[in-house]
Amino acid sequence: MRKLLFALPALFLLASCGGSSNSSTQTTTEQTAAEQKGDSFTIDTATTSVDWKGAHKGGLAPRWGKIKVASGTISVEKDSISGGEFEVNMASLQVDPASVTEEGKKATDLEGHLKSADFFDVAKAPTAKFVITKVEPYNASQGASLIADPNYSISGNLTLKDKTLNVTFPAKVEVSASAVTASAKFVIDRSAWGINYKTEGSPENWMISKDVEIGLTLNAKK
């Protein structure tokens, strides 16, 4: 199959309900947002990035790229994140040309396809959203981490298209008096949000891996 799905991001922005290919990522139903207590930090959209990576079955023909964060805030109380949320501009989804090496294929063609009604339907759903619901110290028993030295486990409601699910993943967070930085990397199952090519059981959709890797580098300033 010649087209491949993103996943988000970035990301925003998950794993399938009932389990994921990555044990460090858990997904449940939508949860109550955490109250944003303490000081407010504004996300620096110029230096905050959401990376995505997807592939066909068996890891063949991987594709990757970025999506821009449009706005957001992070709250800090007693030197720890207490809550926050951010929106992702789905129209900014980009495919890295370096990931499209087959003759006759173009990154811009894939970008258009991912933004179409076949996948993210950006015309009807121009933004994705992540809202923090819980922040707690990371415990290795919760599962392996895809980033080094995680110190927090973050849960949040991720909205893609018209569906919201709660996802939990390890993150490395640093808080100072003037800034918050955070990084995370985890795997989501696109089908949990009903993102399928043609139909869920179609051969075309089967050829695309349900797993999508999401990477987040977040910077916020007071």
Walk me through this protein's architecture:
Residues 1-22 form the signal peptide. This is YceI family protein. Residues 40-221 form the Lipid/polyisoprenoid-binding YceI-like domain. Residues 19-39 are annotated as: Disordered. There is one protein chain. By secondary structure, this protein is mainly β. The chain has helices at 107-115, 203-206, and strands at residues 26-28, 39-43, 49-54, 63-77, 80-95, 127-137, 152-160, 163-175, 179-189, 211-221. It has a single domain (26-221), classed as Lipid/polyisoprenoid-binding, YceI-like (Lipocalin), CATH 2.40.128. Strands 1, 2, 3, 4, 5, 6, 7, 8, 9 and 10 form a ten-stranded antiparallel sheet that branches. β7 and β8 (163-175) form a beta hairpin. The termini are far apart.
What portion of residues is helical?
A: under 10%
The helix/strand series, from N terminus to C terminus, equals EEEEEHEEEEHE
Count of helix runs:
2
Q: What is the global morphology?
A: globular
Mean pLDDT: 87
Oligomer: single chain
The structural domain count equals: 1
Concise summary:
Helices cover 6% and strands 45% of the residues.
List the helices and strands and how they pair.
Blueprint: E1 26-28, E2 39-43, E3 49-54, E4 63-77, E5 80-95, H1 107-115, E6 127-137, E7 152-160, E8 163-175, E9 179-189, H2 203-206, E10 211-221
Organism: Pedobacter ureilyticus
Keywords: Signal
InterPro entries: Lipid/polyisoprenoid-bd_YceI, TTHA0802/YceI-like_sf
